[in-house]
Amino acid sequence: MSHRPTRRTCLLATAGLVLAATGWRAGVEAQGADASLASVATAAGRYYGTAVRIDRIAVDDQYRQAILRECTHLTPEFEMKWDAIERIRGKPSLAPMDDLVSFARANGMRMRGHTLLWYRSVPDWAAGVLLEHKDWSPIRNYFSTLISRYGDAIEQWDVVNEPIDTGHRTDGLRENIFLRAFGPDYIRRALDDARMLAPRASLMINEYGLDYDIPVERDRRYLFLKLLEGLKSAGAPFDAVGIQGHLDLSKGPFSPKVFGDFLQEIANLGLQIVITELDVKEYDYLAPAEERDRRVADAVRRYLDVAFAQPAVKGLTSWGLSDRYSWLEVTPEDYARYPGAWKAGDGPGVNRGLPLDSSMRRKPMYQAIAAAFKRQPLG
Ligand code: 9MR
Questions:
Q1: Ligand 1 centre and the CA of 140: distance in Å?
Q2: Candidates 77, 85, 159, 207: which one to mutate for ligand 1, based on the most atoms within 8 Å of Cβ?
Q3: Which domain holds residue 125?
Q4: Minimal CA–CA distance to 375: which of 12, 43, 101, 112?
Q5: CA 277–ligand 1 middle distance (angstroms)
Q6: Is the Cβ–Cβ distance between 192 and 236 less than 8 Å?
Q7: Does some domain include residue 6?
């Protein structure tokens, strides 16, 4: 079934949200090659995109313009997850995805399908069905609903999200609901179903906690590679790996050699790589804003210089574009580290870990991403 415009789509269109594809791209090109992350990435043979929420695109003009200017690829931040789509069994709620896909299509943007199987987005009703009846059909139906409706707009599917966990099983598989219901083969099974429904899309496994040279992430990298090797030798149909890239200034060290070798091992398996959720959680919120921005940008520069040295890395998505809508909150634990600080009640403001600040101005992190794309274009 192909996607048909809905009443909501029409409302979006009349509200001017569905912009002509040619209009904004011409505008971007007129500003020169450095005008946007979209143009810089494209000139480097890669792409840049961001995670978005359609409810914000619909109401925030500045945010919408920034997305149109800076990105060629969009990832739904939550609208495509199973618990958002099928809160009630057999009654998919598709309006937000319809609107987001219409927005992407009308503006010539590509989408990442995030995410088919994620243990944290299983609807309540499905848990019982999967576990008690070992019934795979709800999974297949959900895959089929999404892929048949939006498949032509979606270039990459995160078929399985976050399958690795340390400290439990020797194979490193997370003891999630899918594993408990169907055993370790659930990953191959999901890939098989996705391939049948989306024969031309890039099928991916997406994972976090693979970045730093610390014991837990060393284990995670090892177990993740083992999983990829096992799936490859079993002939599972997948094309690429998503490295989420949630950087954290409280973690470290970051070793260019360790991370670079890890990416090379993935590439050696014949897999492409995408950085799928780049952002930076800060640590020292007392430093002046310029210093905080410099630290965030330095972490991104070091990370992307390694990532973009690897030809298998095809693109980058950040988990949000502007600090205005960052999922990275300054937490009560963060505040607790500074007893007595911010007595005036001003506080540290938002976490500054995305390319644009909360006024949609470009930050050093933005410049670091643009420079990293330019420094190492694909040959
Ligand atoms: O940022 C997302 C947040 O808005 C959602 O409430 C949450 C649950 O759907 O998911 C967040 O995104 C996660 C992503 O899907 C997978 N990697 C970690 C992201 C941050 O938690």
A1: 23
A2: 77
A3: 12-375
A4: 43
A5: 10
A6: yes
A7: no
Instruction: Establish whether residue 53 lines the binding site of ligand 1, counting it when its CB lies within 6 angstroms of any ligand atom.
Output: no
> Which of 200, 216, 294 minimizes the C-alpha distance to 251?
216
Place of tokens 């912009």: 19
Q: Is 158 in the pocket of ligand 1 (CB under 6 A)?
A: no
Domain assignment present for 4: no
State how far the Cα of 252 lies from the Cα of 211, in Å rounded to an integer: 9
Atom number of ligand 1 nearest to Cα 121: 9
Nearest CA to ligand 1 atom 20: 327
Instruction: State how many domains the chain has.
Output: 1
Asked if residue 7 belongs to a domain, the reply is no
- CATH code of the domain in which 142 resides: 3.20.20.80
**Distance between CA atoms of 203 and 113, rounded to whole angstroms?**
9
Ligand 1 site, residue 222, Cβ cutoff 6 A: no
pLDDT in tens, the chain (379 residues): 344 444 454 445 544 455 444 344 444 444 444 589 999 999 999 999 999 999 999 999 999 999 999 999 999 999 999 999 999 999 999 999 999 999 999 999 999 999 999 999 999 999 999 999 999 999 999 999 999 999 999 999 999 999 999 999 999 999 999 999 999 999 999 999 999 999 999 999 999 999 999 999 999 999 999 999 999 999 999 999 999 999 999 999 999 999 999 999 999 999 999 999 999 999 999 999 999 999 999 999 999 999 999 999 999 999 999 999 999 999 999 999 999 998 888 889 999 999 999 999 999 999 999 999 999 999 8
Tell whether 3 is covered by a domain: no
